[in-house]
From TrEMBL, chain A:
Coiled coil: none annotated. Phosphatase that hydrolyzes imidodiphosphate, 3-phosphohistidine and 6-phospholysine. Has broad substrate specificity and can also hydrolyze inorganic diphosphate, but with lower efficiency. CDD domains: HAD_PPase (cd07509). It comes from the Eukaryota. Signal peptide: none annotated. It catalyses: diphosphate + H2O = 2 phosphate + H(+). It is an enzyme of class 3 (hydrolase). Its cofactor is Mg(2+). Belongs to the HAD-like hydrolase superfamily. This is Phospholysine phosphohistidine inorganic pyrophosphate phosphatase. Keywords: Cytoplasm, Hydrolase, Magnesium, Metal-binding, Nucleus. GO terms for molecular function: inorganic diphosphate phosphatase activity; metal ion binding; phosphatase activity.
From TrEMBL, chain B:
The gene is HDHD2. This is Haloacid dehalogenase-like hydrolase domain-containing protein 2. Its cofactor is Mg(2+). Keywords: Coiled coil, Magnesium, Metal-binding. CDD domains: HAD_PPase (cd07509). GO terms for cellular component: cytoplasm. It comes from Leptobrachium leishanense. Pfam families: Hydrolase_6 (PF13344), Hydrolase_like (PF13242). One of its GO terms (molecular function) is metal ion binding. Belongs to the HAD-like hydrolase superfamily.
């Protein structure tokens, strides 16, 4: 395995293609940091590890890192696939860990799915965490014509999966909507299967393909950019907008691969679900690899200063 | 043939009587959904089996029913009035045990408790493999997370079979396949499947008969796993419209089933009148 950190020492033999080689001190410089105006942060595994009685623990340095992004004047948005709670409860939990974060700054799949269900006049059968149920309170759930599934955790019982399966079998045209399709994530007591694994189970059982709301879908990243008001300059192309943004996450496929497909640069942290083999992934290479969010922000801000 | 519909080989009858006639020597019969659904026999199936045995063919019962060891399976079928010998039954559990022994691994056993007698003597402490059967009581968040962590650390996943669902009295229920698919996706690996529709399963089942796949007919209610699997090794497949069968299942495989019949008795009638 290689541990290329995705940045180079400017005095080293291989300066990045941009003109950083003129900066004076041999400070660590990250090519991916240049020109960034807006930061998209994944939450679980980057800000904190979930699990345990307190609902999780902050990853060391991440609380301060978020504050430093705010002080720097960079635009900031939280882009999460978490679907174990409503956005409000989710933000409250993070505030308790000391994070400066508000509900309006979070792009999450729950509200996005709700919007989709309403727009298409669907009646959902829900396979979600109890804490996400309030998101769908006002909806007609009789005689369901779609299944909406999120990270239901303990609710992923055989009985509940069977009910969702039977609901799909009863539909003339089965529609399965999944809040993200992550494979697994890290909790304080170990790795846990994410919604994607159970989505695959139902896809396989019914021979269908799910519609994914959340990362890695391009719509989700683009709406996050729109919500943080990163706009094209007069006459600029969408691709140039994306270049101003940087995604930081711990999921090589959903955070890094998903963002890159939209033209957004993306850096992988070695926290959360990270495994060394992620740095040799056959399909996705991050623009940079950092030990944690704190190091990412160090590199990002030092690049800003040196310019 | 009342109750039988020819799907693909429209000219099969002429074909078999003229050039290159198939000589039928063996009949493989699926159990759950074909001879019985849970504790109820398919009407007329016991009688039909007797008629089949009066012909000069070897009969084997091949099953992906992973809940039961061979002994209890035999007891159940005998109780329903079927005349069957234990050595005529070849199950995916037997195939799985063979694989565990060949690979010399210690499996985490996600199988029904009733299947455990078939794994007597297999070491299961500090597991370094995951063996999955139909085990609803193990298919929960906690246990699947454990199996996932083992597999992510490199333990091979053995699937007794990958059936999508099966029929219960109160409706369809998820089979082991979806849970195998979940672990495969989460760990980015492929499970080794030992039951139907794997080619090795059908060949192993025939081994003790000395017959060739070309001399064999398979009767079952699962279009992909019974019929598709059997036809892939060169057998003829007869799909029955009992058990988990749903209209349109015939179209799930290419080429389609050699024949589709209303039930096991009609399939036997066809064999006796057209294939012998």
């Amino acid at each position: 395995m290689h541990h290329s950190a995705g940045y180079v020492i400017t005095s080293g033999p291989d300066p990045p293609s941009c003109c950083l080689s003129h900066s004076v001190p041999p400070v660590a410089m990250a090519a991916w940091a240049v020109g960034v105006k807006a930061v998209l942060l994944d939450v679980s595994g980057v800000l904190y590890d979930s699990g345990g009685p307190a609902g999780g623990t902050a990853i060391p340095g991440s609380v301060q890192a978020v504050n430093r992004i705010r002080e720097s004047g960079l635009k900031l948005r939280f882009c999460t696939n978490e679907s174990q709670a409503t956005r409000g409860q989710f933000v409250q939990k993070l505030q308790k860990f000391g994070f400066s974060i508000s509900e309006e700054e979070v792009t999450a799949p729950g509200p996005a799915a709700k919007k989709l269900v309403v727009e298409r006049g669907l009646r959902p059968h829900l396979l979600v965490h109890d804490d996400l149920l309030p998101e769908f309170d006002s909806m007609d759930k009789s005689n369901p014509n779609c299944v909406v599934m999120g990270d239901a955790a303990e609710n992923f019982s055989y009985q509940n999966l069977n009910r969702a399966f039977q609901a799909l079998l009863n539909m003339e045209k089965p529609i399965l909507i999944s809040l993200g399709k992550g494979r697994y994530y890290k909790e304080t007591d170990g790795l846990k299967l994410d919604v994607g694994a159970y989505m695959k189970a139902l896809e396989y059982a019914c021979d269908i393909s799910a519609e994914v709301v959340g990362k890695p879908s391009a719509n989700f990243f683009m709406s996050a950019l729109a919500e943080m008001d990163v706009k094209p300059e007069e006459g600029a192309l969408t691709s140039q907008v994306c270049k101003k943004a940087l995604m930081i996450g711990d999921d090589i496929l959903n955070d890094i691969g998903g963002a890159q497909r939209c033209g957004i640069r993306a850096v992988l942290v070695r926290t959360g679900k990270y495994r060394p083999s992620d740095e040799n992934h056959p399909d996705v290479a991050a623009d940079g690899y950092v030990d944690n969010l704190a190091q990412a922000i160090d590199l990002l801000l030092s690049s800003k200063v040196s310019r | 043939m009342e109750g039988c519909h020819l799907h693909v080989c429209n000219n099969n009858r002429r074909h078999t009587t003229m050039a290159g006639r198939r000589i039928l020597k063996a009949v493989l019969v699926d159990l759950s959904g074909t001879l019985h659904v849970e504790d109820t026999a398919i009407p007329g199936a016991q009688e039909a089996l007797k008629r089949l045995r009066s012909a000069k063919v070897v009969v084997r019962f091949v099953t992906n029913t992973t809940k039961e060891c061979r002994k209890s399976l035999l007891k159940r079928l005998t109780g329903l009035g079927f005349e069957i010998g234990e050595d005529e039954i070849f199950t995916s559990l037997t195939a799985a045990r063979n694989l565990v022994e060949q690979r010399n691994v210690r499996p985490m056993l996600l199988v029904d408790d009733r299947a455990l007698p078939d794994f007597e003597g297999i070491a299961a402490h500090s597991p370094n493999a995951v063996l999955i059967g139909l085990a609803p009581e193990h298919f929960n968040y906690q246990t699947l997370n454990e199996a996932f962590r083992l597999a992510l650390d490199g333990a091979p996943i053995f699937a007794i079979h990958k059936a999508r669902y099966y029929k219960k009295k109160d409706g369809m229920a998820l089979g082991p396949g979806p849970f195998v698919a979940a672990l495969e996706y989460a760990t980015d690996t492929k499970a080794i499947v030992v039951g139907k529709p794997e080619k090795t399963f059908f060949l192993e089942a025939l081994r003790s008969t000395g017959c060739l796949p070309e001399e064999t007919v398979m009767i079952g209610d699962d279009c992909r796993d019974d019929i598709g699997g059997a036809q892939d090794v060169g057998m003829l497949g007869i799909l029955v419209k009992t058990g988990k069968y749903r209209p349109g299942d015939e179209d799930k495989i290419q080429p389609g089933p050699y024949r589709t019949c209303d039930g096991f008795p009609q399939a036997v009638d066809h064999i006796l009148s057209d294939l012998l």
